[in-house]
Amino acid sequence: MPSQPEADAAGGRPRAGGRTPARSAKLSRDVIVNAALTFLDRDGWDGLTINALANQLGTKGPSLYNHVHSLDDLRRTLRMHVVGDILQMLVTVGHGRTRDDAVMAMASAYRSYAHHHPGRYSAFTRMPLDGDDPEFAVAARAAAAPVIEVLASYDLDGEEAFYASLEFWAALHGFVLLEMTGVMNEVDADAVFSDMVMRLATGMAHRNGAGG
User: Which of 54, 61, 140, 147 lies 20 to 30 A from 99 at CA?
Assistant: First the structure.
């Protein structure tokens, strides 16, 4: 005699094979934001819609509007979250390091973040920093603060440090984009990256006669 099917968790209703249907997670703004971050890395910025995210969460689109005002509201929250993550990452890897050691550690961490979280990285770099969201613009520029702090170990400060940090970011962002589009597939990307970063560090060391 076959065993009796297990009862459905929703109220004792039998279900063949003893399997219960998937349940949606209890929704909150944090649950939605975390799910959206995962969604970004899998399906990309352009694929993110309220309905697509609701489907991932096992619910319907209107349910998400109890916690987020709109898709733009959600995307802004994601951008702010990613900026905070990148800022904390740079602070952590740069702590206790100076000069070339710090520059290489920060550059490697930045590149690794882009590789492991391509959708989140797109959220960070896609929107114009001088757009209609002053808070995001301030937060994004704040991500340069750990780099500027490291540049102080090269005796750079003020405007000189600011422009050096822009050059650093431009080089890293350009390299990451080339990797993402497959341009670096035919070369030893790790070696090219290390060489580029060390050239940047050497240039910083010789600004204002700081090379010693």
Answer: 140
CA–CA gap between residue 82 and residue 124 (Å, rounded): 6
Domains of the chain by start residue, with CATH = 25-68 (1.10.10.60), 72-209 (1.10.357.10)
Using alpha carbons, list the distances in angstroms from residue 87 to 113, 139, 141: 12, 9, 10
**Per residue in 19-75, pLDDT tens?**
333 445 588 999 999 999 999 989 888 899 999 999 999 999 889 998 999 998 898
> Could you give the residue ranges of the DSSP H alpha helices within the chain?
29-43, 50-57, 61-64, 71-94, 99-116, 118-126, 134-142, 145-151, 158-180, 189-205
Q: Which positions ≥6 away from 36 have C-beta within 8 Å? A: 48, 53, 74, 78
CA–CA distance, 64 with 27 (Å, rounded to integer): 8
